[in-house]
Amino acid sequence: MYHPRLYGEFYEMGLKYGNLLYEKANFVLPKISKQKTQFGLESYKELEKFYPEIIEEIKGFAKGIKDKPENLGAFLLSLGVFDTTGQCSVFAFNNEDSTIIGRNYDMLFEYKKFTESSLIAPKGKYSYISQSDVFIGRSDGINENGLSIAMSFVNGTEVQPGIGFHFIVRKVLENCSNTEQAIKLVQETKVASANNFLIADKTGNIAVVESAPQKSVIRRPEKSENFIHITNQFIAKEMTPFDRGDVEWSKSAERYNGLKDNLQSIETMDLPKAKEILSNKCVCLDLKKEKFGTIWSVAANLNSLKIERAETKPRTSNYKPETRLDWWLKKKKKSSRETISSI
C-alpha cells in the first residue's frame, strides 16, 4: 500500500503525484474500451460542474504522466460503473461518548498492488486520511472534523453519465463537517451508478444514503439500535427495484446478517471490538477460488481521531496506527501560531 502525503493547491497535488508515479513506476494510463471512453468523457463534463477544483488536480496529474486531462478524466469516471467487482462491509456504532466506525474493502487480490492510503490536505479545504485503489478518487476516509464516509458497490439496474463514487467521497471529505451536510451533498449529486454511502460524525449522527441514478433514500438506525451497517445490497424497500442482485457469490446477505448479529450483541464499542468484528470470518471475505477478499480494513474513533488500518486481510493483531492526520493538524496549528506571533 502506498502512503502519499498531498497538500497545497489542487493542481500542485496532482502534478506532484503524477510526476512521482511517472518517474518511479513508469506509470501510463490503462487502455479502456470505446464505450467506457465515451461514458467517461460525458461524465467529465459533469465533474467540471460538480467539483471544478478536482479538474485542476486532474490537469496537474495528467501533465505529470505526460497525458491529456480528458484521457485521465475518462478513465477515472468510467471506473466502478460497468464492473462492480468490489464488495465491502461497513458499520458505524454510536456510544454515549464516541462514534466508532469499521470498514472492510473487498476486491480481487491482484488489486493490492494499487492500493493507497493518503493524507490529503487541499488548500482551503478540510484535511483527511482516506483509502483507495486508484489515484485521485477515494473509497473511504475520515476528515479533521471527525466525519467519516465509506461506500459499497450495489449491482444497480441503470448507469448514467455522472459523478462516480470516488469523487463524491472526496468532495464530502473536503467540504463537509457533519453527517447532514454530507447527506445533502450526496443526494444532490447526479450519480453515475448505484452505491451505498455510510456516513457518520463525532456527534453520533450515523446514516446510510442508498443511492442510484433513479433516486436515493436515507436510512437511519432502527429505534432500538445504536448502529447502522451496509454490504452490497439495498435494504430500503423503495430502493430494491433498482438493485439487480446477483451478489450471492460475495456473501453479501451473509455479511450483512453477520454484522447485525455482532453489533446487536455489543453494548459498548471500542477499537479492539471493531477490529474483532471486521476480522470475523462471517464478515471478512477470503474467497480463494475467486482470488478475492478483504484487501484493507479500517477501524476508527471519530471523536479522538484515532485511526487504525490493516493493509491486507485483517486480523486483530495486524492493524497499525495511522498518525499522519494528527501530524498534519499539529503542523498546521504550529504554523498558525507562528503567523499570529509574527504580526
Strand content: 15-25%
Strands across the major sheet, in which order?
Answer: 1-4-5-6-7-8-9-10
Quick one: how many beta strands?
15
In one word, what is the shape? globular
Question: What Rg, in angstroms, do the CA atoms define?
Answer: 19 Å
Beginning-to-end CA distance, first to last residue = 42 Å
Helix content: 25-40%
Largest sheet geometry: 8 strands, mixed
What is the number of helices? Answer: 9
The sequence of SSEs as H and E is EHHHHEEEEEEHHEEEEHHEEEEH
Q: Provide the low-confidence segments as ranges.
A: none
Mean pLDDT value? 94
Which structural class matches the secondary elements? alpha+beta
How would you summarize what this structure contains?
The chain is of the alpha+beta class.
Description:
The chain is α+β, with helices and mostly antiparallel strands. It has helices spanning 10-25, 34-50, 52-64, 69-78, 165-175, 179-188, 252-264, 271-279, 324-342; strands at 5-8, 87-94, 99-108, 116-122, 128-132, 140-143, 148-153, 195-200, 206-211, 216-219, 227-230, 286-287, 292-301, 306-310, 320-322. A hairpin with a 4-residue loop joins strand 9 and strand 10 (216-219). Helix 2 packs across helix 4 and helix 5 packs antiparallel against helix 6 (179-188). The longest helix is centred in the last third of the chain and has 19 residues, at 324-342. The protein is globular, with a radius of gyration of 19 Å.
